[in-house]
Every structure is written in C-alpha cells, then in structure tokens.
Amino acid sequence: MAVLHLTKDDFEKVITENETVLVDFWASWCGPCRMLGPIIDEIANERPDITVAKVNVDEEEELAAQFEVMSIPTVIIFKNGEIAQKSIGAKPKLALLSLLD
Is cis: bond before 92, omega within 30 of 0? Predict the structure, then answer.
C-alpha cells in the first residue's frame, strides 16, 4: 500500500477511519528523516493491514504542534483514533514494527 501524505485537511479522517495508522512526522532537510524514509516505505509495502502516512512538519506546523512534535523524525502509532505509541528519532525497522504490536 502506498504511503499517504497527510495535511490538516485530511488527517483526522484518515486517523479515525482506519484501525491502525503509523504516522511519520518528517522534513526534507532532516538527515535522520531521510534515513527513516525507505524503512517507512518498506513497512507500507509489507503491512497491508495498517495505514502508513507521512506529515511534513514544515508544511503542516499546526499538526506538529497539536501532537507536540519537538524533534523529528517522530513516529506516532494511532489505534482506533487514539495515540497508542510514540517514537522519537530514527529507529531500525524491527523497533518500529514492535510499536505496532
């Protein structure tokens, strides 16, 4: 499944209409974000049971503030519309997958 690129206009709909959503808060200038990007893409391709999305913090400052994203990359796992897990910094794929359990 393709990675969704969320804005404030569609964020709430995606979070509430999908059971499990992994959201990567990132920016194009962020080195660790660029390292994490291919891992996020792999997870999206390998886990059709979840929705994988990205939020560019430079373009969506309101969303970053709403979820208190102070450092990037930040990955937040939403389950049934609620925050279930939060991870700050680049992590290996297995660490991110463990957040989904």
Answer: no
CA pair distance 49, 90, nearest whole angstrom? 23
Residues tagged active-site: 30, 33
CATH of 4-99, picked from 2.30.110.10, 3.40.30.10, 3.40.50.150, 3.40.640.10, is 3.40.30.10
Beta bridge partners of residue 77, listed in sequence order: 22, 85
Distance (Å, rounded) from C-alpha 91 to C-alpha 8?
Answer: 26
- Name beta bridge partners: 5: 54
pLDDT digit string (tens) for 76-95? 999 999 999 999 999 999 99
What is the spatial distance between Cα 68 and Cα 4, in angstroms, rounded to a whole number?
21
Prediction pTM value: 0.95
User: How confident is the model over 8-46, as pLDDT tens digits?
Assistant: 999 999 999 999 999 999 999 999 999 999 999 999 999
Please, where are the H alpha helices in 4-100? 11-17, 31-46, 61-66, 93-99
